[in-house]
Design a protein that fits this description.
16 helices, mainly alpha, 0% strand, globular
Length: 392
């Protein structure tokens, strides 16, 4: 297959959302990547006070938490659906399904960094940490930008299917919601115990405790737990999400009130509150009729490329921002120019990586799963209402 045919295949795939695609989730994934890029550019544009005081930069660090909620929702939907249909989980099939989606581009980045080290003698200490998805526990030694959150999600992909599989052998699948509830309830307790080992007053200093509680799975995976809980509701209690307008009012109030409290609560509860806040926003968007989502196609394209953008943009910023700040300074103008330039280049590179790396492996996955697929009971209407797995 020649390069041009791969580009055309990527272009056509991005123009054709799969049947059942949920545009509301594409909007949220677009918001998540915009938050992440905003906060990273804000690190360089230190004099861009107007930009740094906007919610996109002030709350930009929370973009990863929104990604966690969406990942928990998507993966949870797949797992609950399988449990409801067969009362078991094919862990091997699930891991391979996720692997075909995550590993090709991720390990392509690692291969590029390894070539830098071998050929150009660029120091890459700790690259092995990224290779085995443990850099969220050694965040100062890893080499792949943003890999800590991917490690957290990878650990989630391995742990949760096994827990649900074991639980389904002794309990009814519906009762396994306790896994999500117990996990979410335990996280603030774990953070409290971790913070006890820090000097007095450190528990209110985000920077002083970031490495201890921001990166590890066991202290910062609240969004994944909330996403898993929402997907359980959509599988087993869909009627809860079909209430009247009063539910929207409550959810919006939770979202607005949650954002207002983010900088008021101690770190022990911060990530739990952020997860609840984005969980409420996600449910609001899931209740929005699809016809009301304007410009759905650009959101779908952004959502589809967001994984590549996430992996690429930080490295691009490291190389481009010194030149951009030298040209435009570190004020508001520099922030705007840098945002436009880095976003454009990141999405262009993400499209290339999608066409040449991600999409061929996704097609390979589709052929593999088609051979392994076995007959299963027809899903209920509730299962058909689950979010489409277009980014999976």
């Amino acid at each position: 297959m020649n390069p041009w045919s791969l580009v055309l295949a990527g272009y056509h795939d991005l123009r054709q959302p799969p049947a059942g695609n949920r545009p509301c989730l594409d909007v949220l994934r677009t918001l998540a990547i915009a938050l992440v890029i905003s906060t990273h550019i804000g690190f360089y544009c230190t004099q861009a006070l107007r930009a740094r005081q906007t919610p996109m930069v002030l709350f930009g660090w929370s973009g990863v938490d929104l990604f966690f909620v969406l990942s928990g929702l998507l993966i949870g939907g797949q797992l609950w659906k399988e449990l409801k249909a067969s009362e078991t989980i094919d862990v091997k099939r699930f891991v391979l399904r996720r692997g075909f989606r995550i590993w090709p581009l991720y390990y392509a980045v690692i291969a590029y960094l390894a070539v830098q080290h071998i050929v150009w003698r660029v120091a890459r200490p700790g690259l092995w940490i990224d290779t085995i998805f443990l850099c969220n526990y050694m965040p100062t030694r890893h080499q792949v930008d943003g890999a800590w959150s991917l490690s957290t999600e990878e650990q989630f992909y391995l742990l949760i299917p096994i827990l649900l599989l074991l639980g389904a052998k002794r309990f009814s699948p519906r009762s396994l919601v306790a896994v999500s509830l117990g996990w979410f309830a335990a996280l603030p307790i774990i953070r409290y115990l971790v913070l006890l080992h820090y000097p007095q007053g450190a528990s209110t200093n985000f920077n002083a405790t970031m490495e201890a509680i921001y990166f590890p799975f066991h202290t910062h995976s609240d969004g994944l737990a909330i996403g898993l809980l929402i997907s359980w509701i959509m599988t087993w209690k869909l009627e809860w999400l079909q209430k009247g307008r009063w539910l929207d009012v409550v959810l919006v109030a939770v979202f607005v009130g949650g954002c207002w409290l983010w900088y008021s609560v101690p770190l022990t509860f911060l990530f739990s509150l952020v997860a609840i806040t984005f969980g409420a926003l996600t449910i609001v968007f899931l209740r929005i009729p699809e016809r009301l989502i304007l410009f759905a196609r650009p959101f779908y394209v952004t959502s589809r490329l967001s994984y590549g953008v996430y992996l690429i943009h930080a490295g691009l910023l490291t190389r481009a921002m010194p030149h951009l700040t030298r040209l435009f300074g570190t004020g508001f103008r520099s922030f705007v120019y840098s945002y436009v330039f880095c976003s454009t280049v990141s999405f262009a590179l993400a499209f290339v990586s999608f066409s040449f790396i991600e999409l061929p492996f996704l097609k390979l996955r589709a052929r593999y799963l088609a051979r392994k697929r076995v007959a299963a009971p027809k899903p209920s209407e509730a299962l058909e209402a689950l979010p489409a797995s277009n980014p999976s």
